Structures are given as C-alpha cells and as structure tokens.
Amino acid sequence: MQEFIASLPKAELHLHIEGSFEPELMFDIAQRNQIEIPYKTIDEVKKAYQFSCLQDFLDIYYAGAGVLIHEKDFYDLAMAYYQKCYENNVIHTEIMFDPQTHTERGIAFETVISALQKARLDAKEKWGINSLFIMSYLRHLPEESAFETLKQSLPYKKWITSVGLDSSEMGNPPSKFKDVFAASVKEGYVPVAHAGEEGPSEYIWEAIDVLKVARIDHGNRCLEDDKLVNEIVKRDLALTVCPLSNLELRNTDVITNHPLKKLLDKGIKATVNSDDPAYFGSYINANFIAVQEALDLSKEEIITLVKNSFKHSFATDEQKKSYLEQVDKVIANYR
Ligand SMILES: Nc1ncnc2[nH]cnc12
Ligand SMILES: [Zn+2]
C-alpha cells in the first residue's frame, strides 16, 4: 500500500510555504543573515516542536519565518518544498504564503512574490511541477491590514490565483474579513479560508455564506452539525484536510480517531494535505500512509482522495483531464 500511495501522482491543496521551512535550511539562512535563533541543534528544534494547540505552533512558526529577509531566502525555501513535491510525486500544488508575516517586519511584498515566482518557473522546468499561489490574510490582524496586503498584491495579480485566511482562528471569525474578501473576489482572486480547524462549525457557515469560499481549509468540525454537512455536500465544496497537523496540534487525540473516513462516508469531498510539513515532521505521502493505516482505508478510498484533490484544484479543465489520466495510468498497473 505504501508503494501504491507513493506511486500515485498527487495534488497538494493546503500547504503553507513558511511551514515547509526545515530546521537545517533555517540554520543556514539564520547564519548567513546573522540572526540569532533559539536552537543550536536539531535535537533542540525537535524538543521545541511539541505543540499543545494552534497558537503554540503559530508562535514558533512566526519566529522561524523571521529569519527570511532576502529574495534568495524565499527562493531557497520554495525550492526546498518543490524538491519534496518531486520526491512525493506531487505534480500540482497550490501554495499558501502569508505576506503580512513578512511585510509587518519591513520586508517588501515584491521580495516575497518575486522569489516565489522564480522558484515556480524553475520547479516547472526542473521537475515539471505545476503550481498556483494562494495569498493568505492573517486573521489575528485587523481587516485594514488585509486591505493593505490586497493593495500591495495588485501589481502581481497575474501570479496569484486565490486568497485565503489563516492564523489564530478562535475569536477571529471569517465575518471579520467580509469586505476584504468581497474586494479580493472583485479583483479576480478565488476565495478559500481555514475554518473549523479549532473554531466552531459556525465559522464554517460564515466561510461559505459570508466569504463564499470555493474550498474549506480543514473544516473537520463540520461533523458537529448535520445541516452543515448536507450543505457542504450539496454545494460540492471540498475540504483540504491535514491529518498529521490535526494530530500534532491536538485537534485529534489519536490518529485512529481522525475524522477523515467519516467525512468521506458522508459524501464530503475530502483531500489529504500536509499543512506545515517541516513543523509536523511529515510531507504528503506520510499523511496518506498514516491515515490509510490508522483508518484502514481501502485502495479505492485512497484513489478517491487523490482524485478529489485534482478535481477540486484550481487547475484548468485541460490540466485536470491530463492529471486524472495520469492517475488512471498508474492505477491500471496495479489492477
Ligand atoms: N494549521 C494552520 N492553521 C492556521 N493558520 C496556519 N498558518 C500555518 N499553518 C496554519
Ligand atoms: Zn493551514
């Protein structure tokens, strides 16, 4: 089964580029930028990466991103993730980036987006990987800050597909960002949002009714509301589920209790993703393997999850057709 999972071409729809910052690269970049970080060894890092909740993780994640200064830093970060895509057979990825994490520290929006764009072109040339960018607003900051970010993004609009909403969920409901999402959609960005990761099912309702999202990031807590589950199925909204993130951030107590299979059984278009793989120690294949083993998922269920990601990606119809054909070709070899 592990070999089967590894051999399938995959799409990743929920990945924070700042969350793919491996400690070794962080040490290198911190050293060349002469920035002190609180760890000296990988062992110290591993000890620090024990989280009790989302906020616990976010504090460490924002501190780590603080060593990224120059365009080359962001480029190296992105190329390291694309290399992992290649190793995990990810042929299409939709990468979230948090501009405010950097602009709040005085780094120009242009530095970040130019590096990502260069890396995207190089990854396409080197490994044939296709990728899109999702500009995520930080929900712990005021809506005006998101508006400022939207404004900064406009000269680079052609490089950005979608807008997202991430960071501290509790107390920062989607409705706080109603106007900036409406303005973003007017500019042509496709809306997505984290909802129901830690926050209640009401936040998922707001994401779909107020922000009018095309996909829900996480969404696990929809299972607490049958009406909401029916609505998600009816509207054919996919969930970008991140099993090992949920485990590491204690949104799931043990992996055998992860809700992924329940979501599939209710007819929800769930997908599997890694979220912040450097912090949770697992890229996409490891996420698939963990849930397959813990929930005893069949090959057919794995195929459904993989196909859901391609079908609910923001790729063109032509790309989707080609991706699904590539998946079917691999499946045929196993039949
Ligand atoms: N899992 C997550 N939830 C919310 N914001 C995030 N930013 C990076 N990872 C996140
Ligand atoms: Zn996330």
From TrEMBL:
<dbReference type="GO" id="GO:0008270">
    <property type="term" value="F:zinc ion binding"/>
</dbReference>
<keyword id="KW-0862">Zinc</keyword>
<dbReference type="InterPro" id="IPR001365">
    <property type="entry name" value="A_deaminase_dom"/>
</dbReference>
<feature type="binding site">
    <location>
        <position position="275"/>
    </location>
    <ligand>
        <name>Zn(2+)</name>
    </ligand>
</feature>
<feature type="binding site">
    <location>
        <position position="194"/>
    </location>
    <ligand>
        <name>Zn(2+)</name>
    </ligand>
</feature>
<feature type="active site" description="Proton donor">
    <location>
        <position position="197"/>
    </location>
</feature>
<comment type="function">
    <text>Catalyzes the hydrolytic deamination of adenine to hypoxanthine. Plays an important role in the purine salvage pathway and in nitrogen catabolism.</text>
</comment>
<feature type="site" description="Important for catalytic activity">
    <location>
        <position position="218"/>
    </location>
</feature>
<dbReference type="GO" id="GO:0005829">
    <property type="term" value="C:cytosol"/>
</dbReference>
<comment type="similarity">
    <text>Belongs to the metallo-dependent hydrolases superfamily. Adenosine and AMP deaminases family. Adenine deaminase type 2 subfamily.</text>
</comment>
<feature type="domain" description="Adenosine deaminase">
    <location>
        <begin position="9"/>
        <end position="329"/>
    </location>
</feature>
<protein>
    <recommendedName>
        <fullName>Adenine deaminase</fullName>
        <ecNumber>3.5.4.2</ecNumber>
    </recommendedName>
</protein>
<feature type="binding site">
    <location>
        <position position="14"/>
    </location>
    <ligand>
        <name>Zn(2+)</name>
    </ligand>
</feature>
<keyword id="KW-0378">Hydrolase</keyword>
<dbReference type="Pfam" id="PF00962">
    <property type="entry name" value="A_deaminase"/>
</dbReference>
<dbReference type="InterPro" id="IPR028892">
    <property type="entry name" value="ADE"/>
</dbReference>
<dbReference type="InterPro" id="IPR032466">
    <property type="entry name" value="Metal_Hydrolase"/>
</dbReference>
<feature type="binding site">
    <location>
        <position position="276"/>
    </location>
    <ligand>
        <name>substrate</name>
    </ligand>
</feature>
<dbReference type="GO" id="GO:0043103">
    <property type="term" value="P:hypoxanthine salvage"/>
</dbReference>
<dbReference type="GO" id="GO:0006146">
    <property type="term" value="P:adenine catabolic process"/>
</dbReference>
<dbReference type="GO" id="GO:0000034">
    <property type="term" value="F:adenine deaminase activity"/>
</dbReference>
<keyword id="KW-0546">Nucleotide metabolism</keyword>
<dbReference type="InterPro" id="IPR006330">
    <property type="entry name" value="Ado/ade_deaminase"/>
</dbReference>
<dbReference type="GO" id="GO:0009117">
    <property type="term" value="P:nucleotide metabolic process"/>
</dbReference>
<keyword id="KW-0479">Metal-binding</keyword>
<feature type="binding site">
    <location>
        <position position="16"/>
    </location>
    <ligand>
        <name>Zn(2+)</name>
    </ligand>
</feature>
